[in-house]
Design brief:
Residues 39-304 form the Pyruvate carboxyltransferase domain. The chain is α/β, with parallel strands linked by helices. It has 15 helices and 10 strands. Helix content is 43%, strand content 14%. α7 (116-124) links the parallel β3 and β4. The structure holds 3-hydroxy-3-methylglutaryl-coenzyme A.
Length: 333
């Protein structure tokens, strides 16, 4: 009988059978990625995708990438990062990127901000929405932003306080939500704690990052279940790296979530998470979502052409499976 109340796509999935006990207690989780829902994609390619590139990406290419992504119909594009250029040199021209991109009124152009200095620089460059970024692992927090989890929360609350005064919207990231490159498995209670602190301080959305891509559908679902007890599920987003090829499965398993982060052509990686591969490719996510009847509002043809183009700029193979397949069809028409 319980099965009848679960959407069809979950009824037939392994996730559903393996996790019925979880799903039974979390009715709101099943509404997930079900037919007819609109799912928002947050494109993180220009920031998460490029930040780890060893060779300096030309400013003009960064700008062209963001402008092309805007034309694809993506509603949110994380475009820049106002972090220390000593820590992440690739993002050092973020002010110029933000100043020179063509801003469409329908698109939100966001930027990472770690501290007051970054907030000030973002404000000067006309940024209207920022993202703070913490972690559920002490060691990762120290390696990535040079402070403990509690210190980071204290620092972020000052950034958020000031950002609210100047009318900015604020998103929060929690990294290492299932695993840490230094500490191994991560306790979901800590993820829930960091996420809830960010939500309480005024972040309108919390993105849960599987920074090193070690999550599997079962672990992901259990983590979301824990976090959603402290932060409303409609305020959560998922952010998967695809190191173990599980990202699409994890998104499919992220029952109840309506916001998915992804990166064009699967670019990406965190400089402080060695061995982590790129983010899940936006093209693959759009293919999944549209395939199960979710509306993304994204122009797939423009998207795959953008994915192929940026891959060639970076001298890489095109990293989206769906993108490659669609492109080869287009080329054979
Ligand atoms: C947080 C800090 C700044 C602390 O770094 P620190 O060294 O502790 O800071 P500090 O205050 O001692 O400053 C050191 C120097 O940096 C400068 N500085 C300080 N702040 C800024 C700033 N905002 N903009 C420009 N410059 C800055 C500051 O002025 C000083 O310069 P100096 O006096 O030596 O010439 C540093 O650790 C940092 O920048 N970390 C960022 C690391 C990063 O960007 N990681 C990747 C993003 S997170 C990620 O990818 C994960 C995510 C979000 O995608 C989700 C997921 O996948 O899990």
């Amino acid at each position: 009988m319980i099965l009848n109340r679960i959407p069809k796509f979950l009824q037939n999935s392994l996730i559903n059978k393996a996790h019925l006990p979880v799903l039974r207690t979390q009715k709101h989780l099943y509404s997930a990625l079900s037919t007819g829902n609109r799912v928002k994609i947050v494109e993180v390619g220009p920031r998460d995708g490029l930040q780890n590139e060893k060779i300096k990406v030309p400013l003009e290419s960064k700008i062209e990438l963001i402008n092309r992504l805007s034309d694809c119909g993506l509603p949110v594009i994380e475009s820049a990062s106002f972090v220390s250029p000593k820590w992440v040199p690739q993002m050092a021209d973020s002010d110029l990127v933000m100043e020179r991109i063509i801003k469409k009124p329908s698109v939100r152009y966001t930027a990472l901000v770690p501290n007051q200095k970054g907030l000030h620089a973002a404000e000067k460059s006309g940024v209207r929405e920022i993202a703070i970024f913490g972690a559920a692992s002490e060691t990762f927090s120290k390696k990535n932003i040079n402070c403990s989890i509690d210190q980071s929360i204290e620092n972020f609350s000052k950034v958020v306080e000031r950002a609210k005064i100047i009318g900015m919207d604020i998103r929060g990231y929690v990294s290492c939500v299932v695993g840490c490159p230094y500490e191994g498995d991560v306790d979901s209670d800590i993820v829930a704690y960091v996420a809830s602190r960010m939500y309480q301080m005024g972040c309108y959305e919390i993105s849960l990052g599987d920074t090193i891509g070690v999550g599997t559908p079962g672990k992901t679902l259990e983590m979301i279940e824990k976090v959603s007890k402290r932060v409303p599920i409609e305020k959560l987003a998922v952010h998967f790296h695809d190191t173990y090829g599980q990202a699409i499965a994890n998104i499919y398993a992220s029952a109840g979530i309506r916001v998915v982060d992804s990166s064009i052509a699967g670019l990406g990686g965190c400089p402080y998470a060695k061995g982590a591969s790129g983010n899940v490719a936006t093209e693959d996510v759009v293919y999944l979502l549209e395939g199960i009847g979710c509306n993304t509002g994204i122009d797939m043809e423009k998207l795959v052409k953008t994915g192929e183009w940026i891959s060639s700029v970076l001298g890489k193979d095109y990293g989206s499976k769906a993108g490659k397949a669609i492109l080869s069809k287009l080329n054979n028409q």
